[in-house]
Design a protein that fits this description.
This protein is an alpha+beta fold and about 250 residues long. The chain contains six helices and 15 strands.
């Protein structure tokens, strides 16, 4: 059993999920800035044109048209969660579907009131990922964007699951429960994970008692009053298993 470390750093987030649901994602944080804040995380591309994986200090974009590629410092992310992932012990895991994986992680949490970064390296029996197509003004709400998402299912693939488990009280600020992205070792494919079967892998888990939220200041965000009444839509667009939902 792995014992999660309590990191002395923070999970840093730019923007809030409810803004994406409202179509307010005009601006973003630069990749250059993100890289100064941590070496591990997830996010989305400018204009929701794909999913982002931050792994070992590299920032990868997973898009509809091309294999995952390293992003340039000038590119921006309209939503990102990033942290510094500490080196630590890993726990071998095997034969777990997404619900079973979520249950295992929740048994390992330091507290359901803390954020946890989740890293899983190994062989996946299968993984179903999605990427979203780039949007044009006027931006559509996230639920409409994901209706046109591109899904890919891979089998027998080696790679890394990168993500976070967030407390239920932060639903709408971020994704409550487990939110993970995938990046193949050969960098051939990646994206937001909708379903997964872990064959043989190593789990690392780190807990965070600090959460640093940074908000956009562009006119669209400032002029869009956000009220959290979209929980059902969050579950629908994210897929998988969430805090408070049955496995």
């Amino acid at each position: 059993m792995t014992t999660p470390q309590l990191a002395d750093s923070a999970v840093i987030q730019f923007a809030v999920l409810d803004a994406l649901l409202a179509g307010a994602y005009d601006s973003g944080m630069s990749v250059a800035t993100v890289r100064t804040l941590g070496d591990f995380g997830v996010g989305c591309c400018d204009s929701l044109g794909g999913e982002v994986v931050i792994l070992d200090g590299d920032v990868f974009e997973c898009t509809v048209d091309d294999p995952p590629a390293r992003m340039t410092d000038a590119e921006i992310l309209p939503f990102v969660d990033v942290c510094t992932f500490p080196a630590g012990a890993s726990e071998p895991i095997a034969g777990l579907g997404l619900g079973e994986l979520t249950d295992l992680l929740e048994q390992r949490l330091v507290s359901r009131n803390l954020f946890h970064a989740v890293r899983i390296d190994g062989v996946l029996g299968s993984v179903r990922v999605r990427v979203t197509p780039r949007q044009q003004h006027p931006f559509r709400p996230l639920a409409e964007v994901t209706a046109g998402q591109i899904e890919t299912t891979l089998t027998g693939v080696r790679g890394t699951l990168v993500g976070f488990w967030a407390p239920a009280i932060y639903q709408g600020i971020t994704v409550a429960g487990l939110h993970i992205h995938f990046l193949a070792d050969d960098r051939s494919v990646g994206g937001h994970v909708l379903d997964v079967q872990v064959d043989q892998a190593a789990l690392q888990l780190s807990a965070y008692a600090r959460f640093d939220l940074r908000l956009p200041t562009d006119p669209h965000f400032l002029g869009t009053e956000l009220t959290h009444n979209e929980d059902h839509r969050i579950v629908a667009v994210e897929g998988g298993v969430h805090a408070g939902a049955p496995a």
